[in-house]
Amino acid sequence: MLTNRQLLILQLTVDDYIQSAQPVGSRQLSKKPEAPFSPATIRNEMADLEEMGFLEKTHTSSGRIPSEQGYRFYVDHLLTESKLNREDSQQLSSIFQQKIMETEELIRKSATIISDLTNYTSILLGPDSSMHAVRRFSIVPLDQNTAVAIIVMDNGQVENRLFNVPKGFSASDIEKMVNILNERLVGTPLVHLHKKLIQETRAILEKHIDRAGELYASFKEAIAITPEERLYFGGKLNMINQPEFHDIEKMKTFIDLIEKGTHATSIFENIHPGIAVKIGSENKHNAMTDFSVITATYSADEMTNGSIAIIGPKRMDYGRVITLLNLLSHDLSRELARLTIGNGTAGRENNDET
């Protein structure tokens, strides 16, 4: 059980180290108005905090830095959210004042702006619409060899998928395929689309279209959706600006990690609604032991959810990042709900006209 004085000294030490990235000494803390104690008293308390595992002594300085245990205690018990200044608030809200009409563009711009505001790396996992059902298929030929499959979901979201059209297929063949897809697959949840495509459409396509197997195989590959395709990054190289990551090898390991989509998506496993903080070794991957990850969730509706992650050093400004994530999560959820309602209404109107 920490005393009130120890709690104060721990909080001031973490706050100071977050701002300076330099080990914190007792004389340094004694000059703060919040700590009306002598350097000797503070030094003794810091020694006790080190013995209890909350602080660590560096090899290059007489000062101390927070340990992983110290950061965890700070986040759980001592942290208060920061207040944003007007400039930051305006910058964050700017993307939502543009009335962006495409979900992907909104997500991409959100990833960029949150990384710019924090100077850390951001990853946004786009909305998961897999439980929503297909409302309509369209296929638009782009040239003799390429077409785009357009899948409109019942929540208004649109998936565009490029695929190769094998030689010899006509516009009439494409039209037949679209009719069969709409007849057999409309109403199928996206998560089951691949399986139902195999079970219910291949035989019918082969019956009505010559060499349908080639066209079917290309289309089937195009509509397979992986979690990695929902990842959007911001500020991948921001970590270079952090003193802890001037080591090129350490930075290279980090870049390699997030470039591999499977590792990046693992950050979002077992995420619960709200804010979550993982510090150092609490992250699954060994390459992330020098990092902290703060995640937040957002949603467009009950079945469409996504997540935001900010990756920074363990010396991350937790209060500021959590404030920004709370605001971004709220605003992003609101705007995605607007897009969903708007697109859904437009889709129903188009269906009524046809």
Automatic annotation (TrEMBL):
GO terms for biological process: negative regulation of DNA-templated transcription. GO terms for molecular function: DNA binding. It comes from the Bacteria. The keyword Transcription regulation applies. Keywords: Repressor, Stress response, Transcription, Transcription regulation. The keyword Ion transport does not apply. Residues 104-322 form the Heat-inducible transcription repressor HrcA C-terminal domain. Belongs to the HrcA family. NCBIfam families: hrcA. Negative regulator of class I heat shock genes (grpE-dnaK-dnaJ and groELS operons). Prevents heat-shock induction of these operons. This is Heat-inducible transcription repressor HrcA. The gene is hrcA.
